[in-house]
Design a protein that fits this description.
CATH superfamily of the largest domain: NAD(P)-binding Rossmann-like Domain
CATH class of the largest domain: Alpha Beta
Number of domains: 2
Structural class: alpha/beta
Helix content: 40-55%
Number of helices: 10
Number of strands: 13
Oligomer: single chain
Low-confidence stretches: none
Shape: globular
């Protein structure tokens, strides 16, 4: 069993949850974060090593992975609208930052490398998303994540680096207060007494996965012997944005006002995933219903 794990972006939404799980499982954890979006307070009181630095700084990245058994690469630009606004920044962080980290891991002989991706690389493919579909990205974010996936698989194919790619569905859960995800935005609006802003008609669908379920998938990927593989990590359940607002109203017991705006550039209309490969090879499956996950997320926001 590996003992030392570096988590890039460990002060972010996923990272704050993953670091807690890794510590519970007995791992020593080193976090690398530049705190551009990550929150120091999310890591308060945790017995971890914290490094502040940027993914583009070769010396910092090399120091972060030195002596580690595995790396989980969460640090990224994750907003589709932001990638449309500034595709060059999106590329620098998601492509060149990932390449910099992979090269550092190759030089340090890191055993395991887990890369956080999404369904954005698949873009125009019809759902359910699955691992055999050809990527057809429709946003700069999707293109940059596709490049990251490609480099991960290439570093395994060329140098034998133990890479594994996980395509995350739409995440929600505790420690998401700083994020731009739709669940977080809706809950923040409800807490502030503002209407829920829907981009488009609300019929677009997503596959919402609770962050703790996803972190268990990351842990299984770290502990697996599989290399050079790609997995969809989702629930397999399709939920429209309008249905989401109804569930949120029920969970929060708040009157919900909706407003409608223009559909955003680069948004996928219908999106959910098949998870049979992860179930079969990683022995993983989600266990939290949307209602239960929303209740736990609202409890965190409320506190």
């Amino acid at each position: 069993m590996m003992k030392k794990i570096c988590v890039t972006g460990g002060a972010g939404f996923i990272g704050a949850n993953l670091v807690r799980l890794l510590r519970q499982e007995g791992y020593a954890v080193r976090v690398l974060d530049n705190f551009a979006t990550g929150q120091r307070s999310y890591l308060d009181g945790l017995d971890i090593e914290l490094m502040e630095g940027d993914m583009m700084d070769e010396a910092v990245v090399a120091a972060a992975v030195a002596g580690m058994d595995g790396v989980v690469h969460l640090a990224a630009q994750t907003s589709v609208p932001d990638s449309v606004e500034d595709p060059f920044y999106d590329c620098r962080l998601n492509v060149l930052g990932t390449l910099n980290l992979l090269e550092a891991c190759r030089r340090a002989n890191i055993a395991r490398f887990v890369f956080a991706s999404s369904n954005a690389p698949l873009g125009r493919q019809r759902p359910p998303a699955h691992e055999e579909q050809a990527p057809l990205p429709i946003s700069p974010y999707g293109a940059s994540k596709l490049a990251g996936e490609g480099y991960c698989l290439a570093y395994h194919g060329t140098w034998g680096l133990g890479t594994i790619v996980l395509r995350f569905a739409n995440l929600y859960g505790p420690f998401s207060g700083h994020t731009k995800g739709v669940v977080a935005q809706f809950l923040k609006n409800i807490a502030a007494g503002r209407p829920l802003e829907i981009h488009g008609d609300g019929q677009q669908t997503r596959d919402f996965i609770y962050v703790v379920d996803l972190c268990r998938a990351i842990l299984l990927a770290l502990e697996s012997d599989l290399c050079g593989e790609l997995f969809q990590i989702a629930t397999g359940t399709e939920t429209s944005i309008l249905e989401l607002t109804e569930q949120i109203a029920e969970v929060t017991q708040q009157a919900v006002e909706r407003t409608y705006g223009e559909r955003r550039l680069g948004d996928i209309g219908q999106n959910y995933s098949a998870v049979s490969k992860a179930e079969k090879l990683l022995h993983w499956q989600p266990s939290t219903t949307l209602a239960d996950g929303l209740a736990q997320t609202w409890a965190w926001f409320s506190s």
